[in-house]
Amino acid sequence: MLPDDTHDKMIAKWMQNPAIRAEVERLEREEMPMLDAILAARKAAGLTQAQVAERMGTKAPAVARLENALITGAPSPSLATLRKYAAALGKKLEVRLT
Q1: 87, 47 contact by CB (below 8 A)
Q2: How many helices (H) and strands (E) does the chain have?
Q3: What share of the chain is helix, strand, coil (3-state, %, to 5)?
Q4: pTM here?
Q5: Domain ranges across the chain
Q6: Sign, Cα dihedral of 67, 68, 72, 78
Q7: N or C terminus: fewer CB in 10 A for the chain?
Q8: Pick the residue with more confidence: 84 or 22?
Q9: Does domain 4-88 have CATH number 1.10.3470?
Q10: pLDDT, tens digit (0-9, with 9 covering 90-100), for 5-55
Q11: For 66, phi and psi rounded to 5 degrees?
């Protein structure tokens, strides 16, 4: 594991790359609010990953992988999977082009 100062220096170096900076800014602007909302919805519903998994017809590790993918972005879950997740929370997933 890297010491914090080494990690911070590495991130600062990467952020000097315009392509990396642009992608980070895009993720922060476009994707993170959506991902935060999805994860917050489970917590607001008061459901555990195991409970969501049962409602989705899958196992808790699959929900853990799904939520981890939402956080890390790799691999991105399909819309069908996100719809199942939303339905398990009593929600509806809406995707819009603006």
Answers
A1: no
A2: 6, 0
A3: 70, 0, 30
A4: 0.63
A5: 4-88
A6: negative
A7: C
A8: 84
A9: no
A10: 788 888 889 889 989 888 878 777 766 677 778 888 999 999 999 999 999
A11: -60, -50
Distance CA 6, CA 24 (A): 20
CB contact set of 50 (below 8 Å; sequence gap of 6+):
60, 63
- The CA distance from 52 to 63, in Å, is 7
The CA–CA distances, whole Å, from 50 to 35, 37, 92 equal: 19, 19, 20
- Tokens 């392509």, residue located: 19
Question: Is residue 61 reached through a cis peptide bond, with omega within 30 degrees of 0 on the bond before it?
Answer: no
